[in-house]
Amino acid sequence: MHRILFPALLTLATASAPAVADSYHCVSLAYPPLIRQDAGGPAHGLAVDVVRAVFARLGHDMTVEVMPWARSLTLVRLGQRDCVFTIFQTPEREQYLDFSRESIIPQLIYFYAKKDAGVVFNGDLDALAGRRVGTVMKVNYGEKFDAARAHFTVQEVATLEQNFRKLLLGRIDLVPSNVYTASYTLAKMHDAAVDAEVVQLPVPLDNVASHIAFAKSRQLTALRDQFDKELKAYVASGAYRHLLEQYRIAITPEMAQFLDHN
């Protein structure tokens, strides 16, 4: 009798037990309003909220460390952290990262220039050959920029704000950035000269999907696939749209297409 009931009871107990929650450790850079960190506080922002919500729906905890981008990439390449976001997919990065197939957010990239500097961009990057372009160290601006990079004089700094300061001083001609972070940074600078002199050129440079990516050395492809499935469900639920409203991010045609895709 006992030998008949014991396996059944064991099966019932196993089925009733909650899934074991794992804790994953992600890295990123300060990229407000997508990722930001106030002094002494936890990381937060639109992308952080999305990733944390998807992990929670999977029954997992996650932490985010905000640090310089080059260090973030080094830590996941060495397998010392589980994941990194938001990140553009490149062949070089694919060697050590498993990228989500779903995008966390579409990033519309624009050039920013000094008003009345005579810089015109109609989508033809060849027309900008020889220009001095300020970029942030190790940040990728999409395939189109990469293909034309050799034709620019590129100057790298640690932060986007530094590039806008250099733009004002006439040390560079152009600054590429996703529109969310550029708008946030320019507003945060509280500088009348910035408001009057820095302009967004009207034609976007690129529209690039940005992802979460998992360290290949930690063998998390199953988690990547689960994340993709749950992210689609999260966007379809309307929760993502609510976050856009919370962070006052406009639903552009590109963003509307992203929401409709899910």
From TrEMBL:
First and last residue of the signal peptide: 1-21
Keywords: Signal
Protein's UniProt keywords contain Nucleotidyltransferase: no
Ranges of residues in domain Solute-binding protein family 3/N-terminal: 23-250
Pfam family of the protein (one): SBP_bac_3
Top-level taxonomic group: Bacteria
Transmembrane segments: none
PANTHER family the record matches: ABC TRANSPORTER SUBSTRATE-BINDING PROTEIN, MEMBRANE-BOUND LYTIC MUREIN TRANSGLYCOSYLASE F
Name of the protein described by the UniProt record: Transporter substrate-binding domain-containing protein
Species the sequence originates in: Rugamonas fusca
